Amino acid sequence: MGVGVFSDQGRRRRNEDFAGAARPTAEAASVSGQAMALADGIGGAPGGREAAEILVRGFLDGYYDQPGQRGVRRAAGAVLDALDRWIRSQGRSAGLAGMGCTFTGLVLSGRRAHVLHVGDSRLYRLRADRLVRLTRDHCLDRPGLSHVLYRAVGLDEGTRFDYTVLPLEPHDRFLLCSDGVHGILDDDTIAGILSHRLGPAETARALVVLARELGGEDNATALVADVLALPPADIPAMEAALSSLPIPSLPGSGDMIDGFVLDRILGEGRGARSFLAEDRRDGGRVVIKFPRPRAATSAAFRIAFLREAWVAATIRSPFLGTVLDLPQGRRTRLYAVMPYYPGESLEHRLSRGPFLTLEEGVRIGIGLCRALTCLHRAGVIHRDVKTDNVILEPDGGVRLIDFGAVLVPGLMSGEETDEAAPGTPGYMAPELLAGDPGSEASDVFALGVTLYRAFTGHFPMGGGEAFTTPRFEAPRSLARDRPDLPAWGDRCLARALAVDRRQRFADAIEMLQILDSGPRAADVGPARRRSLYQRDPLLVWQVLSLCLLILLLLSLACR
Fold it and tell me: What is the rounded average pLDDT for all residues in the chain?
């Protein structure tokens, strides 16, 4: 964020405008956003300046005292209602009769702008050199009375504030100004000055100075705010953006969708079709995934798209795929756009043979462990690790892709209870097929299956197809198919593939350490069962105490 303010008294007896922006801590800004406001005291009435300053200062201070979970509208509304009542009560005194002011507040939270407004101060937005007014003046629409307010703070019992929520884009520029600016400068002039892209403070000063030079005599105040960058999209914002998009019939090769020319089909799934495409607007090649029409009636498919977009936009790693964020208004139907990663999938690499060498397998395994570690640290479970979802890049890089089946904390996971278990049966841990939602241990199991297939071409527990449910028993020894591989590698995969999740690696980091250290690993066998004393020493002492008590009672009874 960049913010600048400038105000000039003009030819008036005093300046009744007041504007400011909060300076929250990083923690407060991440929860409640960045707040700013402008107020213009009602001219001709005592206490106009006092009302404007009290309202702006009180709003900027009180808003951050509200619990973050209340949301912008409720938190800001509670503060403004309290201030409105106080200003109205003060206006009943003889010395402050008619005390009141206009108010325009702006809160930039996440990827949305929240606007609260009453009166005839204004808020403008400049985007791509196009100026749009975001507020309306609450003035009488009658000849000669267009300057008379019919709504403002302090005028009536219970002031009604207009409230609007708008999506943000990088490089948006906002202007809050009093009528001393917009009453003199027309929209084209304002747009021209904002488009020069001077710093916020210099731009605010330029607007006020020009209004004065063109004959303005009233107080004139301008606050300019620049959106320099946006945080990763939050779930409610992405849900709101995607929920309204239609899901028509699947396109075909050669079609143009929103400036993307579809080339060849890269993949077909039960819920979507993926194309390699050329971006005619921004250039370059991308991968676009379109949901099948039946997704229009299935909440689970929409949630899968939302999960994929959120994870790829939020968790960044060179070992994970990403989803591209399209400009507001470009997307006319539901789809996801991803970068095109040159190379091939691990599945394609296996289909052309030969199977991986130890060095290749270890390198890929380490990369996938790092990918899973990034997800798990964010509380996300992938649930569909498999050879089709691993991209091998020409420079040796490894990327885990496809987040449509991920488990995201708090993201409507209950919606999928009536759907098939997420993932691919041949790679799924037994607890997933039994109804467990997924855990780090189930991702480790899928990684074990993926590496076993990469080394041998087979599934470790039987079944020749990815969508065949395996018989869960001790995995087939790696040495039977690849006697050239070392024993520590066999033990490593056997532990990752343990049917009992408690016998697997505790997490992907532990497996990474084994793969990285190789033959130097001290112990890669299945986790040893701990003694009862190690697991529950209190229970052991309780049992011993009970035994001693029984012996004591028997001893007393025999006397």
Answer: 85
